[in-house]
Amino acid sequence: MAAPQGQSGEEREKSKRIGALAGLAPFILPYKWLVVLAGMALVLTATVSLILPLAVRRVVDGFETENAQLLDSYFSAALAIAGLLALGTGLRYYLVTRLGERVVADIRKAVFDRMIGMSPAFYEKVMTGEVLSRITTDTTLILSVIGSSVSVALRNVLIFLGGLVLMLLTSAKLTGMVLLLVPAVIVPIIVLGRRLRALSRENQDWIAASSGSASEALLSVQTVQAFTHEAQSRASFADVTERAFVSARKRIGTRAVMTIIVIFLVFSGVVGVLWIGARDVRADVMSVGELVQFVIYSVMVAGAVGALSEIWGELQRAAGATERLVDLLHAEDSVKDPAQPRTLPEPVKGAIGFEGVTFHYPTRPSQSALSGINLDVKPGETIALVGPSGAGKSTIIQLLLRFYDPQQGRVTLDGISLCDVTRAEFRHHVALVPQDPVIFADTARENIRFGRPDASDAEVEAAARAAAAHDFLARLPDGYDSYVGERGLMLSGGQKQRIAIARAILRDAPVLLLDEATSALDAESERAVQHAVDEMSADRTTIIVAHRLATVKKADRIVVFEEGRIVAEGTHDALVAEGGLYARLARLQFTEGVEDAA
Ligand SMILES: Nc1ncnc2c1ncn2[C@@H]1O[C@H](COP(=O)(O)OP(=O)(O)OP(=O)(O)O)[C@@H](O)[C@H]1O
Ligand SMILES: [Mg+2]
């Protein structure tokens, strides 16, 4: 399997290391007060931790001064310090974790807001499951960073710096020796850190790919099982999951090596320095209390370095995740709303125009789906698009909804190019029954109401009646309130279609688009729906795509498509008389049955 998510290695190289975390700034900024408070708690606890060894030295050396009262006061001071430490730590935990949760919730919403508005071209290249993984797993990484790692890192930086200064004050000679060891520790952190970063990103990519693979198979579980494809599905999911594991193992291994090297170097250095310190104490150059204090500080500093090297890896993982989410947030959409949108003159009449439209799908630049289409639909007119499968009929509808922009020519509504108004504005005036009816995991009622969220129950029912859906809906166990399952799993094909039609009827828009809307209906339901469609289309612009010519016979005009071009147009009778492709299709459909019967 190729590297997941069509990103080239070059782009990966460009990844801006820890700096990518800056992408989080816009999300953190609104909560700067939380950050300030958390920062204060952090500085408080770090300071207190740094003071603690001073108190310890006093206590140790105090045994010799034999002043009982002073000793008491040192112990009560130590107690107060412990209290401050506990309070500060708790406060920091609360503030920082809360900030993390808040920011992650905001990021999830922002990414979803962006994704739900992306045009279909985007999803031709990105798997939905991958996007979902970004929104869930990647944000979890960010949560762990904002909600803990960053504050732990800052705390350790403070401890490191403060501890170093205090070590210096305690014994400049010993500190100097410790500092000589620093480069030895930093070098492996930098070298291995670079490798860690690449591995983290690779790991996240494979996790996302494995979600993508799982969601695709699970969404089509019936087809998978019907074709006894489970073994292949299992194998391909296992494959990406194993790759995710392998890249995780490499990442963990690298980090483990880094931890071993760093901890060993740091502590062996401390031991060496202590050895020298112990000799100083024996030579009376240093008090026992001072040595103890120095030991505590150097252990603190060493611990801080160890913690930082560990957190570094985590920060890098989060940087990778942030980068990916920011990529999604700024993903280019091939279809954009204009900067200065015009508004459609009210009321919208529903005149549709295709002016010299040539179009190929973005993923198939060499193959035109439509070429040189000129089509004028007058307000209130009903036109039918017919033609062989793959001729471009659904593509006309996709362009009418501006899911894509044509490479040449323009599509207009009431004379205004769709590119000059916002998509939301004109889509408001369009009702669609798509070729594959889409049903949501909700009740039948809410599925119909999707067409117009403010519709009353009575209006929903009226729409259902018009779509010949009322009878079957009323017979469901909970009537209109029956749950219909994910993607309408609990409904028949024809029932789904009727709900989709009812939804479009309820929308009550001046332009009605029906793409094979009645293809799954029995003759009787189709006649009933046809009747409803006829009534609806009387006063609105209607475009019907149908293979069954009986359903389009009554259209004002029939437009015949073949290989992305309009090859004929006219009424049923005129086209039959003309004797072209349409006449051939009509002969097949209208006479074959008779011949069979004869
Ligand atoms: N998203 C897409 N990306 C690339 N090519 C596409 C896409 N959708 C459709 N096509 C191609 O565009 C051409 C026209 O497809 P279209 O869906 O418009 O056909 P149609 O006339 O609606 O056919 P049918 O009657 O089978 O529904 C076909 O060759 C199809 O393979
Ligand atoms: Mg189609």
From TrEMBL:
Residues passing through the membrane, by range: 74-95, 141-168, 174-193, 256-278, 290-308
Ranges of residues in domain ABC transmembrane type-1: 36-317
GO terms of biological process kind: oligopeptide export from mitochondrion
Q: Which UniProt keywords apply?
A: ATP-binding, Membrane, Nucleotide-binding, Transmembrane, Transmembrane helix
Q: Which molecular function term from Gene Ontology is one that the record holds?
A: ATP binding
Q: Where in the cell is it found?
A: Cell membrane
Q: What is this protein called?
A: ATP-binding cassette subfamily B protein
